[in-house]
Amino acid sequence: MIKPLADRVVIRRLEAEETTKSGIVLTGSAKEKPQEAVVVAVGPGGYVDGNKVDMEVKVGDKVLFSKYAGTEIKHQGEEVIIVRQSDILAIVE
Amino acid sequence: MIKPLADRVVIRRLEAEETTKSGIVLTGSAKEKPQEAVVVAVGPGGYVDGNKVDMEVKVGDKVLFSKYAGTEIKHQGEEVIIVRQSDILAIVE
Amino acid sequence: MIKPLADRVVIRRLEAEETTKSGIVLTGSAKEKPQEAVVVAVGPGGYVDGNKVDMEVKVGDKVLFSKYAGTEIKHQGEEVIIVRQSDILAIVE
Amino acid sequence: MIKPLADRVVIRRLEAEETTKSGIVLTGSAKEKPQEAVVVAVGPGGYVDGNKVDMEVKVGDKVLFSKYAGTEIKHQGEEVIIVRQSDILAIVE
Amino acid sequence: MIKPLADRVVIRRLEAEETTKSGIVLTGSAKEKPQEAVVVAVGPGGYVDGNKVDMEVKVGDKVLFSKYAGTEIKHQGEEVIIVRQSDILAIVE
Amino acid sequence: MIKPLADRVVIRRLEAEETTKSGIVLTGSAKEKPQEAVVVAVGPGGYVDGNKVDMEVKVGDKVLFSKYAGTEIKHQGEEVIIVRQSDILAIVE
Amino acid sequence: MIKPLADRVVIRRLEAEETTKSGIVLTGSAKEKPQEAVVVAVGPGGYVDGNKVDMEVKVGDKVLFSKYAGTEIKHQGEEVIIVRQSDILAIVE
């Protein structure tokens, strides 16, 4: 189990079929391509660089995040990404 | 539905005909070209990098924003852009 | 009507004849050329990047600003520029 | 014995076999490759650049950290790395 | 009349003869050449980027400033320079 | 005698033989090579760039520091280095 | 007379003979060469970029400073240098 520190969030990228179902398609020309993902673990927040960060996302949220943000790792056979909450643009409902 | 986080705002670019009606035409030589758009969703504001941000725009506002700001996504067949409120220059009435 | 947000100011550049009348001539060798303009709209000020900004200029003020600052737009047939108040160097009386 | 100052943490990289057992495999294309390590010493925290830092990791924690962070040294025949706590992405349990 | 905003100061460069009289000669090899000038207008100070600035120079002060600082303008036939107070190194008495 | 200002620390690099005795050997590939040294003078700390700095090292401490940090001087026939305390990674005991 | 503003200090470089007497010799390979000087004028300190600066050096102090810091001027036939107090590394006694 991965327990992210501070304002970090572990997310799992949603596959194309899932993306299609949610109705979000990324435009090809966007310099910073957002991506859809589901939240699998959320750090505790708290003070990051002296600023208090409250965590606004929770496990299970479908989110849009910046493609080039974060660090990809493979955990128990599944690829996940560790991002900062500020790299998450929006929650999709 | 897209719920932007923090100080982010979801906007939909106004088409040329709409732009003409509002009387704003962008000059060709401007290095940072502003664009007209309508606000479709507004984040909750709050503390961003330790600074309190109050949201000054609301859904339906016609706004000028910097062309190169934000992230374009296609949501349910419609292109929208996610920007920070500080990328919005002015409200047009 | 353009309502600038935060510490932004909408200004209209003064023509050469107007500039001559006010007695200000810009020197050619200055790296950052100032320009004379008249203020046409003033944002509400308030907190910008966590710092409180009080607006010191008002509609009708003749001001000197940095040539490369701001964003030019054409509004109802007239070119205006949206700058931050901190890009305004001085008021000319 | 190495006693790290401020928000620094001394970690010992886990070998491949250990990594395999924990089920984390790093993907080849990640720009900033995380690595697994075990914490061997923890600084006292306190004020760093004016911000209060509480130490969230403890000796014995298995952690993910950014490959290019920190300074490698050889201490009593064993290679260790001195990183800042903010370079630690997550605790693995 | 030019009324500088915030922490800005309007200065008039002193001619060589004047410089010689005051006994200050600039060395040729200095990377950032200071210059002697006289203060002709002083902004109100106040909060600049969130920091309170008290104005320490007054009209008539002879000052040393950094050559490459500020913006040169010609006002009613006389060249003046608009600098920030922090670009003024010292007062010469 | 050298009395360092603010958060500065005067250190004397330990020779190879001393380093070997303490059991620390630097790895060749490290981009920022740490070095072992002994503290010979400690500044008073206090406010540095607005942040309060308490001095954590004392005269006689054996420390690891970053090779490229600080300024080398020769004082009474002995080479010493003036670093900021934040350039000291750890105390070795 | 030169009255430095804020946290600035006017210093006069010590000649080689003086340097030799004090026992400090600069090593040739140091990237940022310190220099010995004597303090001839001290600014009032106070708030600089929002941070309170107390002046720790006084007229007559022999100090080590960074060679590339500050601005050299010739005042009444004597070369002096205007530096910020933070460019002074240590007092030599």
TrEMBL record, chains A, B, C, D, E, F, G:
Keyword Chaperone among UniProt keywords: yes
Function: Together with the chaperonin GroEL, plays an essential role in assisting protein folding. The GroEL-GroES system forms a nano-cage that allows encapsulation of the non-native substrate proteins and provides a physical environment optimized to promote and accelerate protein folding. GroES binds to the apical surface of the GroEL ring, thereby capping the opening of the GroEL channel.
UniProt gene name: groES
Quaternary organization: Heptamer of 7 subunits arranged in a ring. Interacts with the chaperonin GroEL.
Record key words, sorted: Chaperone, Cytoplasm
Location in the cell: Cytoplasm
Native source organism of the sequence: Youngiibacter multivorans
Record's keyword annotation contains Chaperone: yes
Record-linked CDD domains: cpn10
Protein name in the entry: Co-chaperonin GroES
PANTHER family recorded: 10 KDA HEAT SHOCK PROTEIN, CO-CHAPERONIN GROES
SUPFAM superfamilies: GroES-like
UniProt record similarity statement: Belongs to the GroES chaperonin family.
InterPro entries: Chaperonin_GroES (IPR020818), Chaperonin_GroES_sf (IPR037124), Chaprnonin_Cpn10_CS (IPR018369), GroES-like_sf (IPR011032)
